[in-house]
# Entry
Amino acid sequence: MKKELITLNINGDDIEIAVHPWRTLNEVLRDQLHLTGTKLGCGTGDCGACTVLLDDQSVSSCLTLAIEAEGHKITTIEGLAPEAATENDLENLTLDPIQESFIAKGAIQCGFCTPGMIMSGKFLLDHTPNPNEAEIRAGLSGNLCRCTGYNKIVDAIADAAEKISPTK
Amino acid sequence: MSLPQFTFLAPTSLSEACALLEKHQGKIKIKAGGTDMIVRLSHRAVKPDFLMTLKKIPDLNEISYTPDKGLKIGALALLREVEISPLILEQAPMLARAAHATATVQIRNMGTVMGNVCNASPSADNIPSLVAMNAIIVASSGKKEREIPIDEFFLGPGRSALQANEIAVAIKVPKLAANSGVSYQKISARSKVDIAAVNIGALITLNEEGKCKAVRISMGAVGPTPLRASLAEEFLLNKKITDETLAEAGRLAAEDASPISDVRASREYRKLMVEVMTTRALKEAAGFASQRVVKCKSS
# Structure
């Protein structure tokens, strides 16, 4: 069956790409565009490892057809720190405040859930700049982590919130 | 797992969509948000030749309200949109609570209330409050529309009263009568994210003496379709709302429930929870009714 030529706007760039209509956004990002920061976990929308932003809304890329992402603004974990994604210049690495907080607070262990957690954290802080702990936990409730026990991830989001929108 | 191959259809009008549905009968599936359909495709639970999205049909995502016609929720209104819509929070906050209780943040940003209803799962989060509020499903064949009372919409697990050439286009929710209140209660192992083990929707209207003038109770995940708690409803009519009458209503609701044991809960546990949560739902609904307010905070 024929592939269709579509244009995906990913992290600010328009990318023309031929896709089969049954390919998910997750498959196209990872397998065709090699943007492997976005993970594939369960493939059924339960674990959140594949979370990306579509028009600034957090969605499961494993349940999104790539063909239906055309015409929307796609943001992946690579888009949060564009410098780091394109150059391998660790000296001048500029990260998103949420990424910095994840490192500072020890919220990363194996790292598999981290991109999805950070994208969910970004969606949360975009809408709720100063969340309390319950709001942080609710905001991350669609993302599973098998290592950290979540506490340090919650700390990291709270830390990032304070940096982005200081309460004092 | 990769999805099975299909031809993708993206009609831009309802009449075009219904014509495609008719043309490819038996070989076509519809998707809106896709959060259930893509999983079913992935699991090979369905293998349609054609997958048709409704997303390109304009105006299907509208949420509107008029005092005479009540609320109207379009087929493409997202769970998240219903969760935060000022109109819904003002007119039917329990619909917002039910949408909020559905799945994860990401799923709510993709999935629709109508999709949750049309999948006709007995445990669907958004059904009991809609049944309690006596909603109407508007179905279109492209040429004409018909209104299906929600009590007649569910035929069995995954089976609805929609004809093969029909698309459900909107949910109509009548304006709440004076001195009425609604509640939605859910219990599941993993809080919101998980599918409900039992869920209850209840609507109570009180008369001037504080007696029950009208009541509708819907029980989810305790039968092949969402069930009405008829014994409890008949018992409560014209009775004063007290802790005792509400406890008895809960007990009678459990009598009407016919749950199975499965991975989420045993039959016995479900029966007990129907009793507890029906009483809890009625108490909250009666509380709102007596305050003459329909507002609530979604939890």
Notes: The radius of gyration of chain A is 16 Å. Residues 95-164 of chain A form a domain with the DNA polymerase; domain 1 fold (CATH 1.10.150.120). Chain A has seven helices and five strands.
